[in-house]
Amino acid sequence: MNDLATLLVQQSINGVYLGCLYVMVALGLTLIYGVMNQINFAHADFVTVGAFTAFFVATRFATKVLGLGDAAAYLVSIFVALGAGAVLGLLVNALVFAPLRERGDELRPLIATIGISVLLENGQLALFGPIPFQFDSPFAKETIRFGRIFFTGQSVLVVVVSMLAIGALYAFMKFTFTGKALRAVSQDRETAGLMGINPDFLIGLTIVIASAMAGMAGALIGPVLVLTPFAGATVIVKAFAIVIIGGFGNIEGTILAGILVGIIEAFTVQYLGSGLIDLVVFVLLLVMLVVRPTGLIAERREENV
Amino acid sequence: MSTPLLAVESIELAYGDVPAVRDVSFKVDEGEIVTLVGSNGAGKSTTLRGVAGLMRPRRGRIVFQGRDITSLPAWERAIAGIALVPEGRRVFPFLTVRENLEMGGYKDRRDGARVGARIERMLDMFPRLRERAGQRAGTLSGGEQQMLALTRALMSEPRLLCLDEPSLGLAPLVVQEIFRGIRAINAAGTSVLLVEQNARYALETASRGYVLQTGGVIASGPCTELMHDARVRQAYLGRG
Questions:
Q1: Which of A2, A299, B22, B38 could make an SS bond with B212 (beta carbons 3.0 to 4.6 A apart)?
Q2: Which of A131-135, A299-303, B44-48 shows the lowest per-residue confidence on average (mean pLDDT)?
Q3: Is residue B234 part of a domain?
Q4: Contact with chain B for residue A179, Cβ under 8 A
Q5: Which residues of B are less than 8 Å from A303 in CB distance?
Q6: Cβ contact B75–A184 (<8 Å)
Q7: For residue B40, what are the domain limits?
């Protein structure tokens, strides 16, 4: 293989790895938007909570209390973070969204998400302080090479776990009764009610799924974050860009846009330098907003979820 | 005297502070087709939305099979046996025809075989839907969407089928097909509550009717009588 081909393959692999992380974060945003028509400004903080949960499980609880090896501890922590996200989603829905939904107001839940964000950030600040934690994945040290192409065990793990999670979500939405009902609620909540579908239950379920994915994303992304109570903010801006590029509420578009942004980022690092990543991504976002404001998969522009 | 399937007792329904239905009472007995006729804005559709649970009455009671359902949300009324084909059809545009029908059978989702068998029956009733079973519902013509909305409502095997303006915007031949379907459904044992702008179709299909005007009932009786009622003839049938 010549140098250029090697480079293209190498950066594409890096891009898919980054893209998977972004998709894991962005899907939750898009799901909640699709079903509730609501932007969740606390989503970044759900990612942070997942990252901290994974950090403490992987480096303290699973290793010291359960006596697991580093690798097993990290794997366990990914699923604990998933569960922590789900529980957080359950609480936020029960305490904030459900009561506000009953009053039938659009603006209040939106502002409430900002409140939840502030609460989570400052709560974690009080608990963990502002000094970044060093969250090392045991898989980051393993290097796999094919010829001149390298990747870490961590990137393989991220891609495999994310693909499984994304695939499971996709299959759920496409093939199960509940998943289809969720899409029905997102398309026409009132008519879904006429079918005997309880919209409140499905909206709650959506929030739980979205939050669980955010928690899992936190565990996967934690090792590359500067882990502070505000860590989620660094990925959320890109996740918003991905959601817009993919078409708000569109799952397939979000997956495609996430991988695309990951690959663009990898090549930007290679050819233009890492300082220009955000510039390139947001120029792309602006171009998309002008050229194709409904998102990548335009014929499905009105499909939410 | 046996209890009626549905008894609506002086309900008042309002959009915000604007009442659309002031004081409406009627009943539907088992096996009947009952129609609510009246001009635009008389409160027919609003009444139907009240029956299906899309609006809560400010006053009055709705009793279904002897049970007070006034405070039940729409989804619980659907499970109780009330199905509504809403005005404008409201199919789920991005679900396929088959998926739309599956949603109609949502309450029996744990018995996939039963839902599947019912879908086959629906597709038999309107073969045009079978041709389009895998297509997104949003791509169907208006008549096909109305057939889908109707069969989707039947998927729950309701005791009471409510229809809101099923002829709206459809070609006369399609309307006849839809009304044939409605009579067949009724003959098979489902009670029907029909709201229809086209009073002639409505009165020819139903056995009893209620005439609504500005949010209240002004006349009621067997359709054969209503068809000869001077007020009805003048206002809705276009003959003196």
A1: B38
A2: A299-303
A3: no
A4: no
A5: 94
A6: no
A7: 6-13+20-229
